[in-house]
Design a protein that fits this description.
The complex is a heterotrimer of chains A (144), B (100) and C (112). Chain B has 100 residues and is mostly helical. Chain B has helices at 5-8, 20-25, 32-58, 64-97. In chain C, helix 1 runs antiparallel to helix 2 (42-50) and helix 1 (2-28) packs antiparallel against helix 3 (74-109). Classes of the chains: A alpha+beta (144), B mainly alpha (100), C mainly alpha (112). At the B-C interface, helix 4 of B face helix 1, helix 2 and helix 3 of C.
Chain lengths: 144, 100, 112
């Protein structure tokens, strides 16, 4: 179990937060989308994180039993299954027989807060990776 | 979290286990061959530890600083062994050169 | 011989490495539901590592748990990250100094 594995752990954190940010951006872009190819309005997407293996590819290439635990991965992407929000807009092209249009249940303010959290998380992983890289560099300096 | 620096840096005599003094302390005979053996032993062990450390690094599960320190120790032991050998050899040749 | 010179410092670096891995893990899992912050009890583990033992990770008590069970505090992890990196830097510098001194001592001896 070497310090190199910490780099993989941070990389997995960065990847996970980036996926989360991408989904949030998609949610924000589609906050008012009433029409999708699958039919119905856009449904909000969310990530589920799970602690998981983050083995270093170098170690895998060297066939070592790498202790890669401690990383994180997106275990699934949840699609909002709740009923869409109904707004009364009789003139709208997507209005139903009763004059209601189905809108996605997305609160832009919530999504923005979530996006900031993803961004903070991403940066924290970058800082972590940078510190580990510094420690490894110091170890190399011991050889000089 | 304060650890007294003094507990981390023990002042120990340099190379107590390498060289003629150690051989005498260990009760072995201090003839030329056994002293040289002692020096070689003192170099061989750090060298093997360094090799093992490098091997574990190549296998992907060694700590980098462990390898660096093991390598440095092996280098220092080798340097020291070399200097001791040179001294011993030069003392020997000087003795051989003495007019009888 | 040379182990007495730097063995304790090397154990310290080993422990800092273990702690660093846990910090990286905590940061990566800052938003994972149910994840609990892990760390090493530094003093205890350092004593045991100086005897040649292995370090053990433990869960950190006293952290605020949020709604999904996660108790990672990025502020705490950021603080420990800086501290860890600085300690590693300091100790590796000390070791370099020791190595340099040993080298000088050996090299000076050859002219004596």
């Amino acid at each position: 179990m070497s310090l190199f594995s910490a780099l993989s752990v941070s990389a997995s954190g960065m990847a996970a937060q980036r996926t989360r940010a991408e989904l949030i951006t998609e949610n924000l872009a589609n906050a008012e989308t009433t029409r999708t190819p699958e039919g119905g309005p856009y449904r909000r997407k969310d990530v589920v994180f799970q602690t998981g293996s983050a083995g270093s590819p170098f170690a895998e290439a060297m066939n070592s039993a790498m202790d890669g635990t401690g990383g994180v991965a997106v275990s699934e992407i949840l699609v909002d299954q709740r009923d869409p929000e109904q707004r009364y807009m009789p003139g709208h092209p997507d209005a139903g027989a009763n004059g209601y249009v189905a809108y996605p249940r997305i609160n832009p303010a919530e999504e923005m807060v979530d996006l900031m959290s993803a961004s903070n998380g991403y940066q924290a992983n970058v800082a972590s990776m940078s510190a580990v890289k510094d420690m490894l560099q110091r170890s190399i300096d011991l050889l000089r | 979290m304060s650890i007294a620096i003094s507990s981390l840096l023990p002042i120990t005599p340099i190379a107590p286990s390498l060289g003629p003094g150690a051989a005498a302390a260990a009760g072995k005979s201090t003839n030329f061959a056994s002293v040289m053996d002692g020096v070689i032993q003192g170099v061989e062990q750090p060298r093997q530890e360094a090799n093992q450390a490098v091997q574990s690094l190549l296998n992907g599960d060694g700590e980098l600083h462990t390898v660096a320190l093991a390598t440095q120790r092996a280098d220092l032991a080798f340097d020291l062994g070399l200097q001791i050998r040179n001294k011993i050899v030069s003392a020997y040749t000087e003795v051989m050169r003495m007019q009888l | 011989m040379l182990n007495a010179l730097s063995g304790n410092l090397e154990s310290y670096l080993d422990l800092l490495s273990v702690r660093q891995k846990l910090i990286s893990s905590n940061v990566a899992n800052a938003d994972t539901p149910g994840y609990k912050t892990q760390d090493v009890d530094f003093q205890t583990e350092f004593q045991s590592m100086m005897q040649g033992g292995q370090a053990h990770a433990t869960e950190v008590a006293g952290l605020k748990v949020n709604n999904d069970g996660n108790n990672v505090s990025l502020d705490r992890e950021a603080r420990l990250l800086s501290e860890n990196a600085l300690r590693f830097s300091a100790v590796s510098q000390l070791l370099r100094g020791q190595i340099r001194n040993m080298k000088s001592a050996i090299d000076e001896g050859k002219n004596g």
